[in-house]
Design goal:
This protein has helices at 167-170, 191-195, 198-201, 216-224, 257-261, and strands at 10-12, 26-32, 39-44, 63-68, 73-84, 94-98, 117-124, 131-137, 146-150, 161-163, 176-178, 185-188, 240-243, 249-253. The protein is mostly beta strands. The chain has a single domain, classed as Thaumatin (Sandwich). The longest helix has 9 residues, at 216-224. The two termini are 27 Å apart.
């Protein structure tokens, strides 16, 4: 099933990264290639601290880097069209049209669907060498494109993951989310979010890989973004791995086709 869930250390930089040293933490670099400001949200699993305090503002063209220890797991996403009061205000002190996390700049909970996710588990796996597992998930819907590129090809399945396509432009009418009635599409809901039925949510009698199969909606997502999760049991073509500690990761919001092709 899709991966889910980095001890903090926030650095803002225009540079990318060097390959990690033996025993060093993993560096995540977030780059905003959207023509507008986004507010990345971060959420950590396994009791780790929140990277970047859980959320921050990222201007067009800007980058932010974080260091995470072995064993970290968590997720990143982009919030869009946000308005926040001064940072001194107590949360909730604002709101975002997509990816909102309870009106707070610094997220302590996940983003409200529909939202595209970049998910990591560092140093996971059972038998054999430890691996980093990562994916881009559209299981909770789509708001903007996300790409993950490892800094080194550390393993047979250590490669680009993500969604370059603009799914908002292709979104079926029944899945569209607009900022206001009749307005432009700002996100595309998952069928589970839109309809809530077990066959779309992989629950109840449909709660296993054998019974929860692709639907016409998840197939639309998969056709547009073949290197991203389209539904909960879309593991075979959507989970990627690198040798643990051998790569850092660049997460790009609004990636271009060239970003997907440029594997370091």
């Amino acid at each position: 099933m899709e991966l889910f869930f980095l001890l903090p250390w926030l650095l803002f930089s225009g540079a990318l990264w060097a390959s990690p040293a033996e025993g060093a933490g993993t560096t995540f670099t977030i780059k905003n290639k959207c023509p507008y400001t986004v507010w990345p949200g971060t959420l950590s699993g396994n009791g780790a601290g929140l990277l970047g305090g859980g959320g921050f503002e990222l201007s067009p063209g800007a980058t932010a880097s974080f260091s995470a220890p072995p064993g970290w797991s968590g997720r990143f996403w982009a919030r869009t069209r946000c308005v926040f009061a001064s940072s001194s205000s107590s949360p909730p002190n604002g709101s975002c049209v997509t990816g909102d996390c309870g009106g707070a700049l610094h997220c302590a909970v996940g983003g409200v669907p529909p939202v595209s996710l970049a998910e990591f588990t560092l140093g996971g796996g059972g038998n054999g060498a430890a691996k980093d597992f990562y994916d881009v998930s559209l299981v909770d819907g789509y708001n903007i494109g996300i790409g993950i590129r490892p800094s080194a090809a550390a393993g047979d399945n250590c490669r680009y993951a993500g969604c370059v396509a603009d799914l908002n432009a292709q979104c079926p009418a029944e899945l569209r989310m607009a900022a206001e009635p009749g307005g432009e599409t700002v996100a595309c809901k998952s069928a589970c979010d839109a309809f809530g039925s077990p066959e779309y949510c992989c629950t109840g009698a449909f709660g296993s890989p054998a019974t929860c199969r692709p639907t016409r909606y998840s197939q639309l997502f998969k056709a547009a973004c073949p290197a991203a999760y389209s539904y909960a049991y879309d593991d075979a073509t959507s989970t990627f791995t690198c040798t643990a500690g051998a790569a850092d990761y660049l997460i790009t919001f609004c990636p271009a086709t060239a970003d997907a092709a440029d594997q370091a």
